Amino acid sequence: MQDGEQLNASEVKSKNLLKRFCEDGIIQKRALGNRRSGYVCTNAEVLQNYLRVQNGILSLENYIAEFENDTSDGESSLGASKSTKTFRVKSLQGFFIKAINSEMSISGKIIQPEPQGIELFVHQPEHLQISKTALVVGIENPECFLKFEKLAHLFPQQELVIIMRYMSNSPNRWLQTISNNYLHFGDFDPAGLSIYIHEYRRHLPNHRCDYFITPNIEQLISRYGLSDLYDQQIHLLENIDREQFPEIDKLLDILDTQKKGLEQERLLAIV
Predict the structure, then answer these.
(1) What pLDDT, on the 0 to 100 scale, is given for residue 224?
(2) CA distance linking residue 204 with residue 175, whole number of Å
(3) pLDDT at 79 over 50
């Protein structure tokens, strides 16, 4: 709109924001016929001044670019906004990581095991190297990450690298740069499966991406599962083509039959 383009009403997601811009005279409504309407900005300079004064946006182009920049931080956001806090949430992009029976290194320097009570956070995974034979296990729940040693015997091989993301999609981007197999350890419910499908499976080759399912999952869900986890989340799988994800077909059948879900941390109490 800043460049003179017209938007249809259906193209504007925030109706409240659109209403405010129209009431303040920044955007104008135009009738298009057949009860349709469009919106234009007739003065780009007025829009730019308004965004600067009301929203602290110094450059709309830079502001949009910062939203698309996953590594944006407080310093870089100053080119787009008056506040360093606008994009600060992105400044800690990265993930927590630990190795079980394996070695890791940063820029060629071997990482020594951390003492108990300290976990390693990798901010620049492009400098991280792990054993090519290690299985990478992705965990969603912080408690399961911290207490993973209690669960390690459940996994198919001894050499493991455990990761837990932190406010970012850094793990799936890093996984695309390595050849290791990836095993997702999420909740046994629709939300857990949705995270796996959308954030990992669709970004990695099928042959090296799988979902961790315990052999006795049906009994565990029957005994400890919660109906709310199924009822409130099942919509997340409405448009999923199950034939594309055969590795989770059995779990989907169990969820649909029992209409319950199971949180992953439950395993800590029963293993």
Answers:
(1) 94
(2) 8
(3) no
- If you search the block for the tokens 């469009």, which residue do you land on? 38
Place of tokens 């919106």: 39
Q: Given the structure tokens 């969820």, which residue do they identify?
A: 255
**What is the structure's pLDDT at 208?**
95
pTM of the model: 0.68
What are the structural domain ranges in the chain? 7-90, 94-270
Residue 230, pLDDT above cutoff 90: yes
To the question of domain 94-270 being in CATH 3.40.1360.10, the answer is yes
The per-residue pLDDT for 66 is 57
What distances in angstroms separate CA 64 from CA 53, 57, 61, 68, 72, one per listed residue?
A: 17, 10, 5, 7, 11
Query: CB within 8 A of 135, min separation 6: which ones?
Result: 155, 156, 157, 159, 160, 161, 180, 181, 182, 183
**C-alpha torsion angle, residues 136, 103, 150, 146 (rounded to 10):** -80
Q: What is the rounded average pLDDT for all residues in the chain?
A: 83
